[in-house]
Every structure is written in C-alpha cells, then in structure tokens.
Specification:
This protein has 175 residues and is mainly α. It contains eight helices and three strands; from the N terminus they run ββααβαααααα. The N and C termini lie far apart (66 Å).
Length: 175
C-alpha cells in the first residue's frame, strides 16, 4: 500500500529563548513530558492549536494551559449522555461539514479544534454530538471519547467509594 500521500513540514518548535534544538541541549521527548506529569494527548492538543505554517512557542506554562483546556474539554464530553436521543444524521453532517472546511483551509487544525467546541455548543442531542466528535477524533487522534469514558468511570467509582450506607439509610428514612 502507499506509505503516504502528503508530506507536511511544520515550522520549528521554539522556546521563549529561540529555536529548540538538540545541539543546544533543548529538546522535548514524550518520556520527559510523561515524567513531568503530562499526558501525551495534551501535547498533541497543544500542537493542534497552532497552524503548521506558524512557529509554535513551547513553555511549561503553555503546556499547563493546554492541559487545563484539554481536561475541561474531556469533562464537557464526559457530561454528554449517549443515551439521550438518536443520532440526527442531518445535524451530524452539518457539524462535520464545518470540521472538513477547517481542514480544507490549508490543514488549519486550530480551526478544526474550534469545530470541536462548536459541536459542544450545537443545539442538538448528545448522541449526535458524540457521533460528530467520534468522526473528528478519527482525524485528530486526541483520544477524546475514550478519555471521557475513563473520566465517567472514575467519577462513578469515586461516588460509589464515598457513599456511606448509614447516611443513605437516614436520607431514605427522612424521605
């Protein structure tokens, strides 16, 4: 099979002091990010927020901001209920059209990320939103739905662990 159809060379990753380079001893690895407590998806999200033709300025503060934004995004997706309604194919196609337009605009990933937020604001049911987000995630590979599901499970486990049967019995008796 063909290896790839397109090759895109992105501009350099810069630090606040200039170009990041191996010869200066300034370079980033996934293991370093994980060592510092960052999910590699946060770094991907950070990179996707900039157009490939623009230099990206890396700093730990920018990574912190990306981590907060990514975690808020995951929390908003986790709040969607897949059982709420059937997928509205027309609405999903309209949402996907905005995403495709963003990528057709010189592979503008920052606009594609904005399209994710547009889906969350859309006046449609949760099942349709999740269907659109699933399609977007196949392109961006941000692990959105899996991370949201993990967050839902974690929240459910924490709620179950913090439940006190004695208090629940008193609440039931009072009701």
């Amino acid at each position: 099979h063909p290896w790839c159809k397109y090759w895109v060379h992105v501009l350099h990753l810069n630090t606040t002091g200039g170009k990041m380079s191996k010869s200066k001893g300034e370079f980033l690895t996934v293991s370093l990010l994980e060592e510092k407590g960052y999910d590699p998806m946060v770094y991907r999200f950070f990179c996707l927020q900039s157009h490939y033709r623009k230099s990206l300025v890396f700093s730990w503060e920018n990574m912190d901001n990306a981590a907060v934004a990514y975690n808020k995004l995951i929390a908003r997706i986790a709040a969607l209920d897949p059982a709420k309604g059937e997928v509205d194919e027309t609405a999903a196609a309209t949402l996907k059209e905005g995403f495709v337009k963003a990528l057709d605009n010189d592979l503008n990933t920052s606009l594609a990320v904005t399209a994710i937020y547009d889906v969350l604001k859309a006046k449609t049911n949760d099942a349709t939103k999740l269907a659109a987000l699933s399609a977007f995630d196949q392109v961006l590979s941000l692990n959105l739905l899996a991370a949201a599901e993990n967050l839902r499970k974690k929240d459910a486990e924490e709620a179950a662990a913090s439940a006190d049967p004695e208090i629940d019995a008193l609440v039931a008796a009072r009701t």
